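Q: Could you fold this chain for me?
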Amino acid sequence: EYMGTRLMDFCRGSVNDTLHYSGKLLRCLCCLAIIGPLLLLIGIIVLASAATDSRGAAIKKYNAAVTAWTATHRAQFATASFTNTASSAGSVALTADTSADVLADTDSKLLTYSPLKYLSTAGMAGSSVPPTTSDASGTPLTVLSSVSGGAPSQFSVPYKLKQSLFVPNSALPGDCATVVSNTRPQCSVVCPQNGGTWSPADNACKFPWATTSLCVKFALVGQTFSPTAAPGSDVGCLYHSAPQSSTTSSAKVASWAPETVAKKQSSEVVSPAAITLIVRSSSDPYVIASEITNGTFHFGLTRAQKAAVGIILLVIGALFCCGVYGPFVFLL
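A: Sure. Below is the predicted structure, expressed as structure tokens.
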């Protein structure tokens, strides 16, 4: 009976492996067939986009934000004071931080400015989360905001301390298999080896993600600074990509959430005391740059660069088409 079971598993594994590698070969052939026309299409689109100076428009918008920050908004923000009353050390005043925020773009046309944000490394209040807990909200961030020493206003911002999110099996190392295989490792084995937890019900691997820092943007409303979702869609400072809960896609989702997260091992304890808190102005040029560039902090290609890329794609696409379809045309 044992030998019969082993034989059945071997046969089933052989069939699954054959289907897997045949599928890969078929996808390769399909790619070869469509890559030429696809490159031609992309080349035409990129070449057409060179007609508009989107980079110039983005830089102009950014420079306008820098001018407004230098003329008005920085001085207003400098009169503010912020206190985190939900830190691991009790009430802690945030300190002014004038360290530079570096853009990925070094164009000389970009105006420079004097940065200002408020920072606390005292951590957040609350209990640590053990490895057995998959999702946990932190003690809400409570901030006192005042302007020029006036009466403070209190604001509360909830956040997620720990969340378990799926990583697609295709993103796991080793080209793992979710079916019986004779040549590939099982995803259910690879997952815990890389610090994840295998979910048999979802047939997928999930990892704990922990908040490492919180950044909240404030805008001057009346006589005080208040958390604001603009620019963006949440009170977080910067546009960034965040992991998602899908079991089928490796893509990350765009987010203006205040949390910056990092993947942890399933055996790690997550502590709120390690969280850094940052407060920025909604008029901060770095926040505006994040919105304009979708978090890349690069303002895009020049018209000349777009034209060059478009022509290169057209040439490569034409060569692919000649190499793939040329022999068939010759035979016909």
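A (continued): Residues 2-49 form the longest helix (48 residues).
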